Structures are given as structure tokens and as C-alpha cells.
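for the writeup, i need someone to sanity check this before i put it in the appendix. the sequnce is what the collaborator sent (i think, or maybe the updated version? ugh). structure was predicted straight from it, no edits. if anything looks off just tell me and ill rerun, i have time this weekend
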Amino acid sequence: QVQLVESGGGLVQAGGSLRLSCETSGLTFSRHVMGWFRQAPGQEREFVVAVGRNAGNTYYVDSVKGRFTISRDNAKNTVYLQMNSLKPEDTAVYYCAAAYTTVIPTTAGEYEYWGQGTQVTVSS
């Protein structure tokens, strides 16, 4: 049984930082691209960032470049999202997802496994 469990969300003031974690089990972590998506109320789930299987390549949506950093620890089967300089528009439920592929997908439908999400709220 594949499980992805996010943690680290919370309430933070604008300009602050949070570090999200996504611990996985039941899948061959090193063979999966890992991504983070987010969904704000009334909006569709959007791609934020993903990291390749060996962490050698990453892809960020423009709105988070320079502020967010994705990393992975294949020994711990965990992917992280360091979020700095947070803005109110970053407020959303953040989901991690896994895709069994060698390229980095940017659409939700290309990811097979999902976590339950963690709420990030940035106050102004």
C-alpha cells in the first residue's frame, strides 16, 4: 500500500518561511519523480515544483522561483519543500505526488500517487 504523508504546514506571516515534508512508503522512492502541487479555495490544483529521481533536475513554476526549494532524500524516502518569502497568494493546501517516470511531469494527471495535503496559510 502506497502512502504519501505531508507535514509542516501552518499559519505564517507574509515574508516568513515553512518547510514541508512528504514521507513516502510502499513505493520505490528512487524511481519516482516527486512533485508538489497546491490548491487554493475555488481554484484548480496547480503544479508548483518537481524533482527528478536522482535530484539532478528540478522544475519550478515561475511564481515560486527564487523563493521555494525542493529537495529529496532517497535514503529516507522523503521529499521536502522549503518555502521562503511567503506571500498571501501562496495560501493553499499543498499536496505531494509521485510519478513513475524519467521525465518531470507538470500536470496532475501524470502523477499516480498523492498525499492527503497540508494547509499553508500566509497572513498579510
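Residues 2 and 39 are 22 Å apart (CA to CA). The two ends are 40 Å apart (CA to CA).
thx in advance!!
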